[in-house]
Amino acid sequence: MSIEYMKRISAAEEEAVSVRRQAQTDVRKLAEQGRKDAEQLLEQAKKKAEAAYQEVIRNAEAEAQKAYDKRLAEVAAECDAMKKRAAGKLPSAVKVITGKVVNLSGDS
After folding, report:
1. Domains of the chain: which residue ranges?
2. How far apart are CA 5 and CA 103, in angstroms?
3. How far apart are the first and last CA of the chain?
4. Tell me: the pLDDT tens digits for 22-49?
5. Ranges of H-type helices in the chain
6. How far apart are CA 23 and CA 28, in angstroms?
7. What pLDDT, on a 0 to 100 scale, did the predictor assign at position 66?
8. Taking every pair of C-alpha atoms in the chain, what is the biggest distance, in angstroms?
9. What percent of the residues of the chain are helix, what percent strand, and what percent coil, each to the nearest 5?
């Protein structure tokens, strides 16, 4: 082989080494960028999940408050109805109690 061919082969080998090194550098950069992108996506997903969770909690709390208020109103209505029934029976209860007290006092 001539010296010219040897120089071309040597230059080609050097270029191949340079291309390989650059490719390795590029791969490392791409891998690092991929990791960074994945971390960003993960962080965004976590934020979205937290926001969705908070929304579900707010909705559940609102529904629970509505159910509580409704039940409280129902119980208050039941109490009012019981008071009215009791008030209607008060005169007869007073008569019964007065009659027993009078009878007890009269027997002594």
Report:
1. 1-108
2. 139
3. 148
4. 999 999 999 999 999 999 999 999 999 9
5. 3-107
6. 9
7. 98
8. 149
9. 95, 0, 5
| Residue ranges in the chain modelled with pLDDT below 50 | 108
Integer Cα distance of 83 and 86 in angstroms: 5
Among 19, 41, 23, 43, residue whose Cα is nearest residue 31: 23
Look at residue 90 in the predicted model and tell me its pLDDT: 87
State the Cα–Cα distance between residues 19 and 22, nearest whole angstrom. Answer: 5
Question: CA–CA separation, 48 vs 40, rounded Å?
Answer: 12
71 closest CA partner among 57, 63, 56: 63
**pTM score:** 0.55
Quote the tokens at residue 12: 């080609």
How far, in Å, CA of 55 to CA of 25, rounded?
45
